[in-house]
Amino acid sequence: DAFRATRSTADLVTTLENTANPPYDRSAPFFQVHMYEQTLPFYLARTTTPVEYRDELGPGLDAQPELGIAREADWIERWKALPQGYALMSHETRDALGAGGVPLRVIASNPRDVLVARR
After folding, report:
1. Which of 35, 19, 40, 14 is nearest to 84 (CA)?
2. How far apart are CA 85 and CA 25, in angstroms?
3. Which is nearest to 75 in space by CA: 64, 60, 87?
4. DSSP string for 15-71
């Protein structure tokens, strides 16, 4: 359990699921920006969409490119148009996007990741 905060998204997802204002919308899209945290889909019990990330997902994204978003700029456009959405990203990515005016409401964070909502 010593590595829980740095190797798992369990606590982030628990915080999200207990968020009351507004409550977690399970039907809203969920993204992982510039990363793919393997534990997130498990704890969410749903898939997530990678944004500008390939690495081990490359062969699958080659076969089904519609399951990811290749460019951050395309994601930002989509994100701004959503009534609600969620994303996991690094603190550095959150800082850069926030400085660029992308609307991000922090729901929870750990030493490595930040979980944000559109609204």
Report:
1. 19
2. 8
3. 87
4. HHHT-BTTBP-TTS-EEEES---THHHHHHTS--EEES--GGGHHHHHH-GGGSBS-
User: Under a CB-based contact definition with an 8 Å cutoff, are residues 82 and 69 in contact?
Assistant: no
Joined tokens for residue 64: 């089904």
CA distance 27 to 54: 25
- List, in order, residues 6 or more apart from 15 with CB less than 8 Å away: 107, 108, 115
pTM score, whole prediction: 0.91
pLDDT tens for the chain, 119 residues long, are 555 555 689 999 999 999 888 899 999 999 999 999 999 999 999 999 999 999 899 999 999 999 999 999 999 999 999 999 999 999 999 999 999 999 999 999 998 899 999 98
- Return the H-helix or E-strand segment holding 96: helix 91-99
